[in-house]
Amino acid sequence: MPVNCEQSIKAKSQSSNAGQIAIARIRAKLGSSSVGHRYNQLNRQQKSMVLFGAKLKPATFINYSFEQFDTEQREAIRGAIIAMFDVSKSFNALAMTRDQFRQDSAANKVIDEENESLTSELNDVTQATAALISQFETTALQANGVEAIKKVQ
Prior knowledge:
The chain contains 7 helices and no strands. α3 (44-53) crosses α5 (71-91). It is an all-alpha fold. 5% of the residues are buried. It has helices at residues 3-30, 34-41, 44-53, 58-61, 71-91, 98-102, 104-152. The longest helix is centred in the last third of the chain and has 49 residues, at 104-152.
């Protein structure tokens, strides 16, 4: 790459970094942050979800700008946003079509049938176990009775 191109790229990169630093300094002076700016851009429904996740009553705080929250409230909002991000990541690879949300009735039917089958099998095992315990107790009582008779004789 020619020297002029490299110098041009470096100059643009330094200029971009300098611009970002300047914006960050201005925001710091104004008490704003990129998080605050993004929060303030959310619609009412999105803010309500974040506030609910932060355990802050949406009816009370919906009209607050980010800068109006105290440090503890901002930390709660931060936690809520992180939790929402984690939930989003767990569904990220899925195509969120309506069909996927409507198909569960057939899957639930199969699961219900499997559960009924397992419940039936467990009941059979429980009954067999009860019968074995009963036979064991009867045998033990008979053995104790025979020993008692031998002792008496």
